[in-house]
Amino acid sequence: MNECSQKTATDTLNGSALLVNVASSPLCDVTDFVREFTGFTGSEGFFIIKNQYCEESMCPQGPLSAPDPSAHHGLMLVDSRYILQANAQCKGFRVSEIRSQDDLLSQLAQWCSRFLPAGAPIAYANLSMRQFSQIQQRLRAFTFVPFDVPPPDRQYEIERYDEQYCGASDTDKLNAMLAHIAPRAGVLMTSAESVAWTFNLRATKFTNTPTFPSAALITHAQTYVLVPSNAANDLCEDMYLRIPISDFKHKICDLIKQLDISELYLDTSNVPQDWYDALCGVYDDPTASIKHAPDPALARCVKNATELEHAKSIGRIESSAIIELLAWLDAVGASGSVGTSDSVGTVGVSGSVDAPGLASSPDLPITELDVAAKLEEFRQRSHLYRGPSFRSIVASGANGAIVHHSPTNVPCRTSVLIDVGGQYYGATTDMTRTVWVDAAPPPDDLRRAYTNVLRGHIALARAVFPAGTTGAQLDTLARQFLWQNRQDYGHGTGHGVGSYLGVHEGPCGISRGNMLPLACGMIMSNEPGMYLEGAFGVRLESLMACESASYEYAGRVDDVAGRVDDSAGRVDDDAGRVNDGANNVGNGANAVNNDDARTNAKRTNFLRFNVLTLVPFCSKLVNFDALTQEDKAWLEAYHKMILDNIIPLLSANTQAWARNECRKFL
């Protein structure tokens, strides 16, 4: 932690403590702020820190009796994915795991009651309406004041996203939303991904997600889209307003008055609390005029036929780049150093070490950073590639137990967990493979863990389930074999993935708490894992598209294995109603995808998954004796798909490596 910076910043607070949601958004990018205050580089969590004038004498309960005497300074709350990382990075903070939303609220309440006097003001930053409401109700003894984190000084470039890739015009999307909105009502969007999807816009220069700070006000009379004043773009329509980001919320309030909007619909999970406070000042009776409704652009999680087709083709391109990487790593990894011969037969794979960050001497060991850099070299061969969809995770040995580990100069020996995603013009990708690069055989406990994770991955991939099934119901399929060995993992089994948008896209997903019914057209990950602190981590992730499963196919291993075929483009119009009739705003948004799909819809009562990621599993880590015949049949069908679809995209020597690896599963 930077103590000097902390003093300077907290002196400006009008509160005894500062509470911050770590998860950044384009409207409130707290990344640099959080790193400066805490040292934490993770993307989710909360921290609360005492202001300088909140002295120990103000805490009637006395100092915290903890092993670290400075732990009373602040509290960092993260879920299980970030525990090891936060403990290493957040010096001076007591780090605690969040096990549920109620647990988060309880821990915040306990800390505040112990270290802050009753009635003390708490400054808050980056809280949504929903988060603020829950925290305020639990911490009734305290008052809250907003704290504005200065926006980063960045330049933005915006381009129109070609309709041949997104499959629907912005006019069609807007009309579908407006069809169910009263004449004098309006919809406020503060999600950058929602704005980008609705208006078919993307950022050309970005970090991980091709979005930009934005907000939109949609009405029958006029629609306005706010973009940064320093954004380079060719948006000439009157509806695009270029203004400073800091003026967004005030401009929205002015527009609401100007358009005389009687009812304003907004999503409490996205709209910042300070925006809501400003909006309340517009209406005489905010409780009657401001309506809470799901974001109508959540329809983006149900991909149309065009988006699905591009997801399939981009999945093959990304899979080929990953296979090139695994072949290269297998060739040079066993020796632990960069080879001097062109062992894989692709440009730049030899000892010329031409990739950024690659070891400069053939005698130096391959590091986690080298692997991440080498993947970028392979990806750059596609003209559609735009950049990583998140910071690549390459974790060797014990680092694999750190779920969101950032690559370092640690040599890649023994097991290596590689979790990477890409942004391509047309689709977003995310995949994980765990491999063994040592010449010695892997230990039995690692093979056992890998095999149990793989069996769970297979069980979910080959599932056939009735329409209306939720992600929570499917989550246990991936965990069952770990549970039999009294093991588990703390993260969800799968998350939604955007279409050249966010790599984590709600509301769909596969996890214990996700009660949203799955629908045709949803793309999500399948990523069970197992982590042994101080030893290794195993995670196996592929992307899957949810599709119709006709009765005659149900239960047939060779068909439900997740083959890549044209049926991925089918979208069921009834299943696509993401908001499940919650209100007219949500239903109107979903009509965009429903109308597009009606001519191709195949009505059925059952669904299945179509696997989009085609990368071999690591045969060295599989205990084939522990697999069932159904497991083996799925693996055989999966690796045949790789041979049929991906091999032609590979360089000559990599083709030989991939054929050899795939045949071990046949």
- As a whole number of angstroms, the C-alpha radius of gyration is 25 Å
Number of helices: 19
Distance between the termini: 53 Å
- The count of strands amounts to 29
Q: Note the main sheet.
A: 6 strands, mixed
What strand order characterises the main sheet? Answer: 4-3-2-1-5-6
Question: What does this protein look like?
Answer:
It is a single chain. By secondary structure, the protein is α/β, with parallel strands linked by helices. 32% of the residues lie in helices and 18% in strands. The protein is built from 19 helices and 29 strands. It has a 6-stranded mixed sheet with strand order 4-3-2-1-5-6, sandwiched between helices. It has a 6-stranded mixed sheet with strand order 13-11-10-8-14-15. A 4-stranded antiparallel sheet has the order 22-29-28-25. β10 (215-219) and β11 form a beta hairpin. The longest helix has 29 residues, at 305-333. The chain is globular and about 70 Å long. Residues 1-12, 53-71, 338-362 and 552-603 have low confidence and may be disordered.
Summarize the structure.
By secondary structure, this protein is of the alpha/beta class.
Please give the structural blueprint:
Elements: H1 3-10, E1 17-21, H2 31-38, E2 46-50, E3 74-78, H3 83-89, E4 93-97, H4 101-115, E5 121-125, H5 129-138, E6 143-146, E7 156-160, H6 163-166, H7 170-178, E8 185-189, H8 192-198, E9 201-203, E10 215-219, E11 223-228, E12 231-232, E13 240-243, H9 248-259, E14 263-266, H10 273-280, H11 286-289, E15 290-292, H12 305-333, H13 368-379, E16 385-388, E17 393-396, E18 415-420, E19 422-424, E20 427-428, E21 431-436, H14 444-461, E22 464-466, H15 471-483, E23 494-495, E24 509-510, E25 523-526, E26 529-532, E27 536-539, E28 542-548, H16 557-560, H17 584-597, E29 606-611, H18 629-645, H19 652-663
Helix pairs in contact: 7-17, 12-13, 14-15, 18-19
